[in-house]
């Protein structure tokens, strides 16, 4: 299950974790955490440690050893993440591979519908157009690029590389 936690003002990492526990504390399966490698080098992390340390401390008591982190050592390029998201939403052949419930995740829908690319850029997200947008869809993007990356084989090497 993918759900949404949205705190419009004065959100902190511990507040988000408390909301996760309130909404899904009875969940009995694995709890997988995805995100960016920087772990939030600003905000609450400045005072109490990295955001990943805060998340681990807040969620471990509720979810125990079912809590797993799937955070990359380095962040993929924005364009790679966007391509993976777009491909997952709708493939080149027109197959819809990801749907978002507008009742359970209305802010994700608003974000996905509202985020735009920079005009004249090479696909970068225009974060200045509406500062309230892109954060929640970026979060989904880290999950998508980790679990459903777009890779292509390097001819003759047997290795794959990010698009």
TrEMBL record:
Source taxon at top rank: Bacteria
Protein name: Terminase large subunit gp17-like C-terminal domain-containing protein
Species of the source: Skermanella aerolata
């Amino acid at each position: 299950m993918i759900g949404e936690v949205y705190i419009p003002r004065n959100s902190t990492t511990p507040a988000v974790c408390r909301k996760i526990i309130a909404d899904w504390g009875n969940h009995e399966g694995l709890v997988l955490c995805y995100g960016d490698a920087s772990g939030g080098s600003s905000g609450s992390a400045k005072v109490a440690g990295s955001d990943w340390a805060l998340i681990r401390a807040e969620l471990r008591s509720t979810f125990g050893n079912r809590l797993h982190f799937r955070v990359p050592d380095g962040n993929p390029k924005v364009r790679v993440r966007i391509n993976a998201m777009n491909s997952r939403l709708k493939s080149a052949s027109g197959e819809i591979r990801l749907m978002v419930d507008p009742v359970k995740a209305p802010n994700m829908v608003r974000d996905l519908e509202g985020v735009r690319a920079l005009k004249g850029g090479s696909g970068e997200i225009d974060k200045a157009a509406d500062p309230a947008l892109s954060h929640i869809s970026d979060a989904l993007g880290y999950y998508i690029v980790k679990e459903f990356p777009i890779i292509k084989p390097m001819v003759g090497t047997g290795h794959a590389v990010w698009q």
